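Just wondering, does anyone understand what follows?

——
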Amino acid sequence: DALARLQAQSRGVPIIALTGLDDERLAVEAVRAGAQNYLVKGQMDGNQLARAIRYAIERQRAQKELRETRNYLENLLNYANAPIIVWDPAFRITRFNHAFERLAGRTAEEVIGRELSVLFPETSRADSLSKIARASSGEHWESVEIPILRKDGETRVALWNSANIHAEDGRTLLVTIAQGQDITERKQSELALERRTRELSA
């Protein structure tokens, strides 16, 4: 509680926890809660204190840059014009941007944590899930058409590409991210043109 109050009153200022010999566990917990470093009373000299201060300042700066980068990427994803969706290895939706909300007629809150299958019409669901499974196994989508079922029952056709994000070992799949383009009107125009061509040829 004291650390939380101190952080609230001194935003952006690095905090070093100073503890007694019997309180080292509490100091470690303070670092986990947001302190940048800790020192044990009676086990430090001037050089150690100076190093601890430099480390705390550097860690605070790195955390600030990380937060800024995370916020930038968050806004970039959420407000991109293209529909963007992210799912985990179990095919559960983990991210769903505003453009995808408009495409699917569903809010992110309605779909986060649910299986991808909720987004596909029954008639093409198995084929879409098969394509997604291949993408998660390493197949790269240059572009693939996947129908999306809107909440109101309308089906939209989107052109997708995707990429897998792996852990540091380069093998463990963390998430798959896909970006789409609604081509429903284009597909409808192509079908109308084909019908008209057949009629003229008859």
Helices lie at 2-9, 24-33, 46-78, 98-104, 108-111, 122-136, 184-201. The chain has a mean pLDDT of 84.
